[in-house]
Amino acid sequence: MKTSVKANLAAFHHDARLYLTLGIANWSVFVDHIPNNVVNLLTLRNFGFSGAADLFVFVVGYGVAIIHGRMSLERGYLVAATRIFRRVWRLYAAYVVLFVIYIDAIAYVASQSMAPEIIHEYNISGILEHPLRILIGGLVLQEEPLNLDLLQLMIPLMAFFPFALWGLLRRPNVTLAASVALYLAARWFEWNFRVSPDQEWTFNPFCWQMLMVLGGWFAVTGAPGRALRDLPWLRLLAGSYLVFAMAVTLLRHSPELSAYLPGLLLESIAPTDKENLAPYRVVHFLALALLATHLVPADHPGLRLKPLQAVIRCGEEWLAVFCVGVFLSFAGHLILITGPNLVAMQIVVSIVGFAAMTAVAYYVAWSKRQDMPAALRQQA
Fold first, then answer.
1. Which residues sit opposite 194 in a β-bridge?
2. Which of 215, 201, 271 shows the shortest CA–CA distance to 57?
3. What is the pLDDT of residue 263?
4. Are 151 and 94 in contact (CB under 8 A)?
5. pTM for this one?
6. Helical H runs in the chain?
7. Please, what sign has the CA dihedral across residues 272, 277, 280, 283?
8. Which residue from 338, 248, 328, 237 is spatially nearest to 288, judged by alpha carbons?
9. How many angstroms separate the most distant Cα atoms in the chain?
């Protein structure tokens, strides 16, 4: 392991910004999954090229590199790798349980004619005719019901990360270069995982792995990130790009205003090019991360404000909160399409969902503390 990497890992302290970012991503994913909801107009995807998925993948890569990099430093790489694979199993188990219950709930709603069209909207139209085929396809990640794509993506990314971590701990720059090369090759040769019968994954793992490795690279190197934040001209450039991205995104929302955008710009920046992680998405996310970490340092007193603790807690328990959020988004969508879809109702549904996700996060954290020895429970 490189000496500089050892020093960066040893010097790392708890950073609430990581969990705050994951909490924001979880809340954003929840409201983004409820169509025709005025609250999701406030999420990141409406003001630039990147979105909640970018936050999720990068921060998870950063956090896993820190946690398991330190574990590798203290207990050896083999222990760290096996702990990551254990997390992969937990992700897969959570996905399978969520998949089975989720498609059953959607099929039940459709069969009861409460909202029969919902079975096509959620991409499981074959469940009524071929339930066994859909179930087996889900177990081998060959089905992709709506809103489960991000959790599905995290399974191969996490399974790949032990190999990436081995390189990041020894040759971080070479590992990042190899990751970028795989990203470019996947885009050029159109590599992707397949979904039954002839579709592709919404998030291409061969491309999105780069964002996760990039998060790990920033975690283990540390110093380049701090050096970049100290360059005023770079912050100005990042701010200018964010303004440009926001202008293009907002103009795209209006057919009348989008007519003023150059044709070349419209063709080169696809509004939904998230499958292969378009380069301009990566640049937008990095610009956003650069300014955010500069404006909100790790010791910022605002991170201790009570209102933010709920979001931070949702980030700490991100897997449980994400799974609950999938069901809540489905329930919220069902309420809005079967009842009065008023703006007030959309806001109420969103607020109730946030409250439920927060309650789950606090319960999971409390439950974990109960399994600790008494001495550790008092410190937690």
1. 200
2. 215
3. 59
4. yes
5. 0.91
6. 3-11, 16-32, 52-75, 77-111, 118-121, 131-139, 149-170, 172-189, 205-221, 223-229, 232-252, 255-258, 263-268, 279-295, 306-316, 318-338, 343-370, 374-379
7. positive
8. 237
9. 65
